[in-house]
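The following block was generated as part of the benchmark described in Methods. Ligand: manganese (II) ion.
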Amino acid sequence: MSNITYFIADLHLAEDRPDITACFLSFLKKDAPKAQALYILGDLFEYWIGDDDDSPLVNQIAQNLKILSQTGTAIYFIQGNRDFLLGKRYAQRCGMTLLPDVTTIDLYGEKTVIMHGDTLCTRDVDYQAFRKKSRSWWWQAMIKSLPLFIRRKIAQNYRKKSAQSTAMKSQDIMDVTPDEVIQCLKKHQSKLLIHGHTHRPATHELTVNGEPAKRIVLGDWYEQGSILYVSNDSITLENMPFSR
Ligand code: MN
C-alpha cells in the first residue's frame, strides 16, 4: 500500500447494468487495495430502498467492500441523491465510514472539501425542494415503514420520472451554480473541492479570495470507470475501460 488516495462517485450500480458491477468488482480487487483510502462520493447505487434490502447485488457489493476494508484500505462514503437512504447499518456491513454531506479532509496537507455535489446545483429548484422533503425524519420514517416490494416499485417509478425530467431540464440548471462553489470554498477556507453528481469530469481552475483554487469533478461509470488518484505530489483523473 502506498500513500495514495482514490476518489470515485456516480457508479449507479443496478441489477440491469452488470457491466458496471463487473468493472467495479475488478477495481476493488486489483486497484483499490493499493490505496490507503477510498472515498465514494455518492450515487454508488442507482437507487437505494433501505439498508434491509436483501438483493444479491447489494450483498455482493457489501462483501467485496468489506474484504477491501479488511486488507487495510479505509473506505468512506458520502450519500448521493440516489442512495441518500444508505445508512449506518449497510455502511457497517461494507466496513465503510459514513461521512456528513459536506466534509473537509486533510489531503496530504491540503484542506479539501468533499461532497456529492447536488447541493451546489441550486438552480434546480424542483430537485432542491424534493431534497429538503426527502431528508426530513417524517418522510424517511414513512418510506422505511413500507414493505420492501413497495419501496422497490417506488424506486423504479422514480427512476423513470427522473430520466424524463432530466431530459427536459436545460444544461445549466443541471450544473453547479458557480457562485455557490466560491461561497463553499470560502466558508471552509479551502482551495480544493472534489465532487461528483454532474457527470462532467473536469478540473476547473478558480480564484477564491484572490488565490488560485480548484474544483475537481469526478466522472460517472456509465461507459467506463472514472477514478481520481491523489498522492502528495500529484492529482490525476483517469478512466478505466470496462474490459481489461
Ligand atoms: Mn447524483
